Amino acid sequence: MVKSSYNESLIELLHTITIQLDRYAANFIFLFGVVGNVLNIFVLSQRTFRSNSCAWIFLASSFVNLISIVSGLITVMIGGWTTNPANTIGWICKLRAHIVFSTRTIAPWLIVLATIDRWLLSSINAIRRRKSTLKNAQRWTAVIIILSMLLYAQMFYCYEANLTDTPLQCYDKTAVCRYLTDLSFGGIAVVAPLMLMILFGLLTIINV
């Protein structure tokens, strides 16, 4: 009886902490994230950087990060004061999941692209250096965006609102979907970009 009461109190405490974090921490992250990315966009869109392939990639990355922050935190911030619409409205849940996962995958791959661009530009091989162009950067940015959006197309099927036996109300509705989402995000959005950044970063250092 005492243990049950303790567990209930702990759950209530954790729930209260979560609500407070949604109310205030999300606002803090949103403010600084938006301001930081807007400043990046302002600086990198200057005429001086328009012909620089690496600057263009970082500009695209700033736009993507801005979209990720806005789409990911708006509903969380709303949920801190009232009902989170992503938890109760199916199409918002699905659309938010797709945008958040897609943008969080696009962003690190754009950094990989920038790392590869620096490696090409620092190469002693003239043929490789000529591949570091604005046109190539734009082309590969488009490829990354399209593939990332296709990668998480299953979100429109897998994610559902008003779920009860899941960590979140807006969540994968089946175990297969959960494994697919976790593996694709962990492998493609985290591990693979990290390894490639390290690899091409080291190759760039060797070139220099």
Automatic annotation (TrEMBL):
> What InterPro entries does the entry give?
GPCR-Ligand_Int (IPR052954), GPCR_Rhodpsn_7TM (IPR017452)
Q: Which residues cross the membrane?
A: 24-44, 56-79, 99-120, 140-157, 183-206
The answer to whether the entry has keyword Membrane is yes
Provide the protein's localization.
Membrane
Q: Where does it primarily localize?
A: membrane
Q: Which residues form the G-protein coupled receptors family 1 profile domain?
A: 36-208
GO annotation, cellular component aspect: membrane
User: Could you tell me which PROSITE patterns the record lists for this protein?
Assistant: G_PROTEIN_RECEP_F1_2
Q: Which UniProt keywords apply?
A: Membrane, Transmembrane, Transmembrane helix
Q: What is this protein called?
A: G-protein coupled receptors family 1 profile domain-containing protein
Species for this entry: Rotaria magnacalcarata
